[in-house]
Specification:
The protein has about 750 residues and is of the alpha/beta class. Helices cover about 40% and strands about 15% of the residues. Helix 3 crosses helix 9 (about 355-375), helix 20 packs parallel to helix 23 and helix 22 (about 705-710) runs antiparallel to helix 23.
């Protein structure tokens, strides 16, 4: 029934969209727009699902983590592919710190003799799972450590979970905590644990979130089997990503490096991920308070928090080696604007075999490069230079891409029009995020690419899914009327961070998903066998990714006037300002009321004495924040974008050289950077987008202001409002100057 409704909804949207189709491409005059559409048709003909599948099979055939022989072999294979496609390609090598396990053990010290396996069993249904050369399950950037302490269950290990523990009178100081994967990035869990005094952290995947409670487990179904473990980095990458020893500079062979003890992003306590098979004996041994109902997972036990008497021993030691990271960089020089670059990237390293993450995305990127190479051989060359990259060391916290950007930052700041990223890919709906001045651009592409499952555009399918997923009738009607794609804001977690948040380069991130759920992420079971069963069996969404990202590359490469629409950016920033205004008001009122309730003892009166809940601690009240000046500047920015858009439309058919205009357009986002960076983490310079201090991958928009409010830091919030105000003024003045320069041309 759901499929029938979905198809009906898509057909309705398709019929409505025919009335609103554009006759020409944004950024192109009519003649050049027609040429571009012809180029894209030829590009599509050279995209092969079979070839994408063959590359996924080849490049995920063996383990290929950073620093391994497998990684070097994959880089060499990718290099030869680029060269065979007609690209000028080379490997740029960086030398980065990378810890690998020397010894790992975890045991219960209660006389039971339980010792965690800390391993994944090979499965008969997946030959890759028995290969040699696999990295064992561990968390990179954990500290070395040998600790024995009481075990405390902390749910997902979020700040709110620790607040609840404090109200129960439970401290984790001097204890080892066990947290569930999920609800936040893995690296946030040990960071918060350490801040609360814990001496070790264990992270496991609960079957309620990622196992048999979700569906059949692998290899019968897609979900996490009993012994599977999610590996991953726990580097404090919200301070800065990349090599911990070379912040702000490329990790070249002779780079000046910090001492390891000086690196701010390496964790301070030992951290180890485990399977739900290994978690069960640990959780079963806990005593003390029964966990709150919403903390319960899917294991067949009563979940307890622990009273500190259940002792566990966690012992971890690592090899802290400097290893090579092989970035494959391929170029096709532009026919007109050689010093304007469109950069396209996807990483090639994996925790193990990595068929889905990252090879599915890399295979689509390679297919784009092949198709563009065929166009070039046939005399159809892009006007701007194309740079395609296969990054190494992404899994360890964006090492390869960050070091390359830091090494070439001055050239990149001058030349890069946009960076277009992808990572893993699967079956489902378009997922896209990035710079909001490119939201209209992404919308047009989404309307021009056909979804392989339903035969309508990927925009129509995305929209239909939004309508059917919405609960409120008003939301359904809103999406029904919507004619633009909702471009997400970017936090971190893939190779776009250094481009967008450090250098202010306009950025897009593309992928498909939503119908490819499973538990293989960062496990031994992210294999070709798994991929063709549960991810994208016929590789058609690999084709869709090539067509989507390829169009973004080609349209930016050939546009007469680069298709930036800053009105979309202004609209998003206005929304974010409304959010932080409401957040400030709500937190101020909430804190004021809570402090009154605390001082008058109402929390103690209402509490059930058997729950042993203490009153919350009184918080410092926020001072009033004034967003009036920011709202005035946003009004000015709205007027500036409207005038500029009208001027750009008038310029298109004049046929003059737009070199200076285009450079001004792609440099405009840099006006939103602050020289001093965000508080406590100056590497992140963008005032609109950043990963959150306690969300990890998750984005915080207007991060300086928002996080100061959330931390009840009134002085810092005022200072960050002033910083944001200045960057918005800078952008407004910049766009007005571009508009005035166009008036003088007329």
């Amino acid at each position: 029934m759901k499929k029938t409704i979905t198809l009906f909804c898509i057909n309705l949207l398709y019929s409505l969209s025919l009335l609103a189709q554009h006759k020409s491409l944004p950024g192109f005059n009519v003649a050049h727009g027609n040429e571009q559409q012809s180029i894209e048709q030829q590009f599509d003909k050279n995209i092969s699902a079979a070839n994408i599948g063959a590359n996924i099979k080849e490049l995920s055939a063996n383990p290929h983590h950073l620093g391994s022989a497998g990684s070097k072999a994959v880089a060499a294979s990718v290099l030869q592919k680029f060269k065979s496609y007609g690209w000028d390609a080379k490997i740029e090598t960086y030398y980065v710190l990378f810890p690998t396990p020397k010894s790992r053990s975890l045991s219960l010290e209660n006389g039971s003799g339980f010792k965690a396996s800390l391993s994944e069993q090979a499965l008969n249904g997946d030959l890759s799972s028995a290969q040699q050369g696999q990295l064992p399950p561990y968390n990179a950037w954990s500290a070395d450590g040998n600790v024995t302490a009481g075990l405390i269950f902390v749910n997902y290990g979020l700040p709110a979970d620790y607040e609840k523990l404090e109200r129960m009178g439970i401290s984790v100081k001097g204890k080892i905590v066990i947290a569930k994967y999920g609800k936040s990035w893995r690296g946030t869990k040990p960071k918060i644990a350490w801040e609360h005094g814990a001496v070790g952290c264990i992270i496991y995947s609960d079957p309620k979130d990622d196992g048999f409670a979700k569906g059949d487990v692998y290899p019968t179904g897609a979900f996490k089997p009993e012994y599977a473990v999610q590996r991953g980095s726990v580097m404090d990458m919200v301070i800065y990503p990349g090599d911990p020893l070379t912040p702000d500079i490329g990790a070249t062979k002779n780079a000046k490096r910090l001492a390891q003890s000086e690196a701010k992003t390496i964790l301070k306590i030992p951290v180890q991920p485990i399977s739900y098979h290994d978690a069960l004996p640990l959780l079963s041994a806990l005593k003390g308070n029964v966990a709150p109902a919403d903390w319960n997972g899917g294991l067949p036990i009563t979940y307890h928090i622990g009273d500190g008497t259940t002792q566990v021993k966690l012992s971890l030691a690592f090899n802290w080696d400097i290893v090579p990271a092989y970035n494959v960089i391929a170029k096709l020089k532009g026919s007109l604007y050689k010093d304007e670059w469109i950069v396209r990237g996807n990483h090639h390293d994996a925790w193990v075999n990595g068929a889905a993450d990252p090879i599915s995305g890399l295979a689509s990127l390679l297919e784009e490069a092949k198709a563009i190479g065929i166009l070039a051989k046939n005399g159809i060359k892009s006007k701007r230079t194309l740079v395609y990259a296969a990054w190494d060391g992404e899994e360890q916290s964006l090492l390869g891409s960050t070091e390359w950007v830091e090494d070439h930052k001055e050239e990149l700041k001058s030349k890069v029009v946009a960076y277009i990223n992808s990572d893993g890919n699967g079956r489902g709906f378009l997922e896209a995020g990035g710079s909001h001045a490119l939201e209209s651009f992404v919308t047009e592409i989404a309307k021009d690419v056909t979804d392989p499952q339903v035969g309508k555009s990927i925009f129509e399918r995305w929209k239909a899914n939004k309508i059917l997923s919405a609960n409120a009738l008003s939301d359904k009607n809103k999406f029904l009327e919507q004619q633009s794609f909702d471009l997400a804001a970017l936090g971190t977690g893939s190779d776009y961070s250094a481009f967008l948040q450090h250098l202010g380069i306009p950025t897009l991130n593309f992928g498909f998903g939503g119908e490819d759920d499973g538990g293989e992420y960062h496990t031994n079971f992210d294999s070709y066998e798994n991929f063709i069963k549960f991810k994208d069996p016929d590789f058609k969404y690999g084709v869709a990714l090539s067509q989507t990202a390829g169009r973004a590359v080609l349209r930016l490469a050939n546009a007469d006037i680069l298709p930036f629409d800053f009105s979309s950016l202004q609209t998003k920033i206005s929304t974010y300002v409304k959010e932080v205004t409401a957040l400030s008001k709500n937190l101020k009122e909430t804190v004021s009321l809570d402090n009154k309730l605390i001082s008058n003892g109402y929390y103690q009166i209402a509490a059930d004495p058997t729950d042993n809940l203490a009153a919350p601690v009184a918080k410092k009240e926020l001072s009033e924040l004034n967003f009036g000046d920011i709202n005035l500047v946003l009004d000015s920015l709205k007027a500036a974008t409207a005038k500029l858009n009208e001027s750009l439309k008038q310029q298109l058919d004049k046929g003059e050289s737009f070199y200076e205009l285009n450079k001004a357009l792609y440099q405009a986002e840099k006006q939103l950077l602050t020289d001093t960076g965000l508080p406590g983490r100056p590497w992140y310079k963008h005032t609109i987008y950043a990963p959150g201090l306690y969300t990890g991958y998750g984005v915080k928009t207007l991060p300086g202001v928002r996080e100061a409010i959330e931390q009840y830091n009134g002085d810092e919030a005022k200072a960050q409002v002033a910083v944001l105000l200045q960057t918005l003024k800078n952008l407004t003045q910049n766009l007005n100057q571009i508009h005035l320069s166009l008036k003088t041309i007329r």
